[in-house]
Amino acid sequence: MTATLAIIGAGPKAVAVAAKAAALRGMGVPTPEVVAVERTSVAANWLPGGGWTDGNHRLGTGPEKDIGFPYRSSAAPRRNADLDARMMRYSWQSHLVSTGQFAEWVDRGRPAPPHRKWAQYLRWVADQVGMTVLSGEVTEIGVDGDRWALATESEHGGASVSADALMVTGPGQSERSILPGNPRVLSIAQFWHRAAAHERICAERVVVIGGGETAAAILNELFGHRVSTITVISPQVTLFTRGEGYFENALFSDPTGWSGLTPAERRDAIARTDRGVFSARVQDSLLADDRIRHLRGRVAHAVARDEQIRVTLHSDRAGEPLETVHGFDLVIDGSGADALWFTQLFSQDALDMIELSLGGPMTGDRLQESIGYDLAVAQLAPKLFLPNLSGLNQGPGFPNLSCLGLLSDRVLGADLGQRPPSVNRRRSHGRQPIR
C-alpha cells in the first residue's frame, strides 16, 4: 500500500515531482503514487492552445534549470548522489542528446529555447518516467475522512479522485479580462490566440495592464505590430528591471539563508527580483522603442464609450488618492496569473478544515504565511502543497522554474501517510495517455 499524491495541472512542477518519484522508485525507495489531473495536455500552458503564449517567445529562465536543478537531492539519505545521477537522465541536455539537438544548441551559444521547445522537453520527461495523467478539469475539492476528494469532468465523463495529499499548480485561467465580451478588450488568451494565428494588431492607442513577465511578453510581441503608442499600467512607480546577477539568481537556486531574513527583507527581495518586474532582455527592447510610456496606478474599472475603452485609474500623489480617466483604442489585460484561483473549488467542509488550520478566514496573506518547509499549509491534514504561494516563507525559486529539483525533494519528503490509491469513476472515464 502506498500513499497517493494528486497534482492539479501537468506542468513543470508536476513533471518534476513525477520524475523524482520515478527515480526514487527505481532505487527501491518508498514513494507515493503521483497522479496529475490535467484538463488539456502535459505542458499545455507553454503551447499556443494554453492561452499563455504563442509558443515562439523564449524561456525567461535558463533551460539548464530543468526538472532536476540544482541537482542537490536530499530525498534519499546516503544515496543522494545516485539520485542526482538518475535525475540527470531527464535533464535538458539529455533531452537534446536523445533528440539529436545537443551539438546545434551548444554551437548556437546555448540559447534559451522558445516555449514550444520547452513544452517538448517536459513531454519527453513525462514519457520517459511513465507519468500518470488523468484527463479532466477539477470542478470541486472536497474531503472524505482524512483524504482529499477531487471531482473532475471531461468530455469522457466524470471521475472522483481520492488522495492522501494534494498539490496545486498552474496560474489559473487566462481568459479573464476587465471587460469580457468587448472586442476592444483582449484577455491574455485572446491576445496570444491572435498572435499564434499571425493576426496583426492595428491600433492607434494600445494599453497593456500589468507590470510582470506576463505583460512583458505581451509587450515583446506588440513591438512587431502596427500600433502608434503603447501604454503600460502598473502599480509600481516605474518599470523596474529584474535583478539577474549572480547574487540575485542564487536566492532562487539556493534558499538556505532565506529563513534567516526578516519578512520585510524577504518581501523586498521578491519585489526587486521577481514580482512586477521585467527581464533585462525586455527592458532593452523598451529602451529602443519610443512608442512606450508608463502610467502608475491600479485599474478600477473600464467602460466602452465613443468607440474607445475608458479606463479609470486609481493612484495617489503625496499621500492623497487620485482618480484619472484615460481613453484607449485597444486594452490588453495582461495583469497576469491569479495565485488564488483554486480557492473557489473548495467545498464548504474543505474550506472549514483549512480555515481551522489557518486560525481565520482563508486569505492570500494567511496562506502564504502558513507555508512550511515541505511547501504545504502547516497544521493541515491531509497535506495541501501550494508551491506557488511558498515564495515568502521558503524562497522565491519555488513558485517558478528556478529550483524544481528542490521542490520535488520537499514535497516527496513530506509524511503523506500510507493509503491505497483510489480513482472512482462516476461514468465511463479512464486514465488518459499523456499525448
Automatic annotation (TrEMBL):
Cofactor: FAD
Catalyzed reactions per annotation: L-lysine + NADPH + O2 = N(6)-hydroxy-L-lysine + NADP(+) + H2O
Similarity annotation: Belongs to the lysine N(6)-hydroxylase/L-ornithine N(5)-oxygenase family.
Gene3D superfamilies associated with the record: FAD/NAD(P)-binding domain
Keywords carried by this UniProt record: FAD, Flavoprotein, Monooxygenase, NADP, Oxidoreductase
Keyword Oxidoreductase: yes
Protein name: L-lysine N6-monooxygenase MbtG
Species annotation: Mycolicibacterium brumae
SUPFAM superfamilies: FAD/NAD(P)-binding domain
E.C. number(s) listed in UniProt: 1.14.13.59
Enzyme class: oxidoreductase
A GO term for molecular function: L-lysine 6-monooxygenase (NADPH) activity
Top-level taxon in the UniProt lineage: Bacteria
Pathway the protein contributes to: Siderophore biosynthesis; mycobactin biosynthesis
